[in-house]
Amino acid sequence: MKNISATLAIVWRIAAPYFRSEDKWVGRGLLAAVIAIELALVAIDVLVNQWQNRFYSALQNSDWDAFVTQIWIFIGLAFTAIALAVYKLYLNQWLQIRWRQWLTQHYLREWLDGSTHYRMQLKGDAADNPDQRITDDVKNFVEQTLTIGLGLLSSIVTLFSFVIILWGLSNAAPLHLFGTDLMIPGYLCWGALIYAIFGTALTHWIGAPLVNLNFEQQRYEADFRFNLVRVRENSEQIALLKGEGAERGGLFRRFGFVIGNWYAIMSRTKRLTAFTASYQQAAVIFPYVLVAPAFFAKKIQLGDMMQTASAFSSVQGALSFFVVAYRALAEWRAIVARLDGFEMSVASAAHPPTHEPTIGLAPSGSTTAIALKQLLVKLPNGAPLVAADAFTIQPAERVLVTGPSGSGKSTLFRAIAGVWPFGTGTIAIPGKSKLMMLPQRPYFPIGPLGDAVIYPAEHGAVASEKIRDALIAVGMPKLAERLDEDGHWNRTLSLGEQQRLGLARALLHVPDYLFLDEATASLDEPSEARLYRLLAEKLPQATIVSIGHRSTLDAFHTRKVALVKDGEIHVLGKDGEPAQAEPTVAS
Ligand SMILES: Nc1ncnc2c1ncn2[C@@H]1O[C@H](COP(=O)(O)OP(=O)(O)OP(=O)(O)O)[C@@H](O)[C@H]1O
Q1: Which chain regions cross the lipid bilayer (predicted)?
Q2: Residue 542, SS3?
Q3: Residue 367 — pLDDT band, cuts 50, 70, 90?
């Protein structure tokens, strides 16, 4: 019971915001319409049930006129039911797509906001495969919530409508046992209730493991798909390393989990279906068994018996909602748990718990320098990595950061960029200054080359002429003619070419602070020197901080600081300390 109320609270938390959003009037209107149709369909069922009594009585009495009248009534009811069924589906689908659109956009905004997606990945917590949660899980949540919610509503209304009818019929057709009439008020209702309780309890007992199995199935399917995408993305590496065998093995193993779990679902579903099918079959005959003695004792007419059977099956059907919908409910609970995990994970990445110390980022209007104060950058597992205290980078300075591989240079950059939360201390960044990070392998979205270069600016934000000039300046005149060409640039360009495009991006964005994390490491030394001179010429006001291992980089920086090992951690050289190598001013 506690589980059910907890699940319902989560469903409410996920579902309700749409009906309070800017699209609320459309959402509420459509929901009201589908609920109204659902109720109208129950009303039609009640009318058909009453019609059955009149129809079978007309047959039993060989009353032709009554028979014809009932046929006309049936035609009217049937047409109404058809129209309602059509609009029930149409409006339901309409509501589904509006709701899904809002929820997907909402999740995309939350997930992509302020590097949350990256921090979620770093934390490696509950939300595996966010792509699947935003696609399949949102779609299925909306669809199943409506189906299950409306099914439940319809069952409750059906139950109340038919319980009244069945109660009346119980009195009209008393329980006739061993030649005597037993007067048990509403005995048919009690019969249906006992039958449904027994069915629901057994269904839950047999089907409970399905919730977990469905949860795991979704996870295995998503893992398998994600790994296929990874193979596609890294196909060149795999082909060069002849890694197909290893990939095949890995994919077979992951697909093995999908299959193994599926067999477990199959076997559980088989047992559940064997029970629910028997239960439903028995439900067909059960009401006749109850009222047949009264019919054969001529206490009731054929019409009464048929109406009773139909009313009983409606009541029993409504009470057995959980039996029939159990599989869907198990799937739905798994989806709800997955979306809940996703929301939790987004929330904890976006707003880390206050008791967890994080690196404080203080955009400061007063300072013109970047200042690191008592900074201790840690790994996600809490192990300290890099320390820096009273370290500043002045405007227009050119700083080269060196240090052994794995000492934490890139992680320090991530902390300055504000995406690495693990650690303590503060990083003060001049207010309104524009920071830009260029990694060794720049990212290019798939699409027109021009858009890939100006990323993260949007299409059309930079004039084509400027993009062309930047490409020519970084030594890519041929690409300057292909700005409108669609491509997967991370795949088709060499790493050196990608690094040139990265620098073109920096020229176009004119950052105040440019951080180059081995961003020219794949270029030959003369080209690297040319590009550094170009940066000095085109971005004279910019502060440039580079990470690099080549000694030739010294010439383009005014200060060189090293990460020096101190016990378990590396410490960033303090301000004013002599540089490790002779600094030389950019030529
Ligand atoms: N997301 C992460 N989770 C766990 N450990 C990480 C993560 N990112 C980096 N590390 C660890 O932090 C350490 C420093 O990594 P970092 O990339 O900052 O080093 P680096 O000094 O830039 O190295 P290189 O010169 O080889 O590029 C490494 O030991 C790395 O394994």
Answers
A1: 30-51, 71-91, 148-170, 190-211, 272-297
A2: coil
A3: low
**What residue's CA is closest to ligand 1, atom 8?**
411
CB-ligand 1 contact for 431 (6 Å cutoff): no
Task: Say if residues 173 and 242 touch (Cβ distance below 8 Å).
Answer: no
Q: Which residue do the tokens 């291992």 mark? A: 549
How far is C-alpha 117 from the chain's CA centre?
12
Please give the span between the terminal C-alpha atoms of the chain, in angstroms, as a whole number: 75
DSSP, residue by residue, 235-303: HHHHHHTT-HHHHHHHHHHHHHHHHHHHHHHHHHHHHHHHHHHHHHHHHHHHHHHHHHHHHHTTSS-HH
Q: Enumerate residues 6+ apart whose C-beta is below 8 A from 306.
A: 52, 53, 56
pLDDT at 236 over 80: no
The helix (H) or strand (E) run that includes residue 427 is strand 423-430
Query: For residue 318, how far is its CA from the centre of ligand 1 (angstroms)?
Result: 59
Q: For the complex shown, is ipTM > 0.85?
A: yes
Q: How do strand 370-378 and strand 391-393 relate by DSSP bridges?
A: antiparallel
How far apart, in whole angstroms, are the C-alpha atoms of residue 300 and residue 306?
10
By 3-state DSSP, what share of the chain in percent is helix, strand and coil, each rounded to 5? 65, 10, 25
- Going by the DSSP 8-state scheme, the letter that residue 379 receives in this structure is -
CB of 404 sitting under 6 A from ligand 1: no
Strand-pairing partners, residue 424, are 376
Percentage of the chain beyond pLDDT 70 is 94
CA atoms within 13 A on the CB side of 195: 28
CA atoms 361, 362, 365, 367: torsion sign? negative
